[in-house]
Amino acid sequence: MRPIRLCCLTGLLLACEALRQVTWTAKTRRSLPTDADFKSWFLQDDRVPACVIAASEVISDVTALGDDRYEAYLSSTTFPFVTLEPKMIFACSRNAEGAIVIQLLDQKMDASGPSWATNIVLATSHIMNTTSTCKYWIDDGDELVGEASVATQFDIPRWVPIPVTVIQNSGQGAIQKQVDDDVLAVLAKLATTPTTAP
């Protein structure tokens, strides 16, 4: 029994050694000045959550699922050899403090590119751990504030023919830019005339 246990332990160590961890994190906080009319609309109008969703430039083809849950596609993101095309389920609602909060509930990944590369990405996406939260509110200075936080972590086998630093750095930069751009876009669109809201 002892040799068998040793072999199992060796196999476990080799399996752990065969994985390289990639972690992408992105955070941003932006604000824009508003006026009393906008503040009143933002805090009282039931259409505001839908307006926040519509203002996002990275969310498309939104389908309401009920109970403040939605399904949508995210803008594709290009990495070495592969373009990722995420589909997500998220919640969007007003919290007790009056802020609009969008929280990722589930995410699936499609990918395009060379078959060997997309197969690797799709296999990895099943063990990808992603959290994402966006929050929009009016602060004490009557400014519209947007804050977003995204974190993704997954393992890359050592046999994948791409340096892990390339995956880490290109993915990190792409996600940070996407988060920054989207929060700014949502703020800019929301700050326009509220009466144009659907």
- Strand element count: 8
Class by SSE composition: alpha+beta
The secondary-structure element order is HEHHEEEEEHEEH
End-to-end C-alpha gap: 70 Å
Stretches where pLDDT is under 50 for at least 5 consecutive residues are 1-17
- Shape by Cα distribution: elongated
Q: Mind describing the biggest β-sheet?
A: 8 strands, antiparallel
Portion in helices:
25-40%
Give me the number of helical elements: 5
Mean pLDDT rating: 82
Q: Kindly estimate the percentage of residues that lie in beta strands according to DSSP.
A: 35-45%
Radius of gyration: 21 Å
Q: In brief, what are we looking at here?
A:
This protein is an alpha+beta fold. Helix content is 36%, strand content 42%. It has helices at 2-17, 36-44, 48-55, 115-125, 164-190, and strands at residues 19-33, 59-66, 69-74, 77-79, 82-94, 100-112, 129-138, 143-157.
Q: Can you characterise this structure?
A:
With 198 residues, this protein is of the alpha+beta class. The protein has 5 helices and 8 strands; from the N terminus they run αβααβββββαββα. Strands 1, 2, 3, 4, 5, 6, 7 and 8 form an 8-stranded antiparallel beta sheet that branches. The radius of gyration is 21 Å and the shape is elongated. It starts with a helix and ends in an 8-residue tail after the last helix.
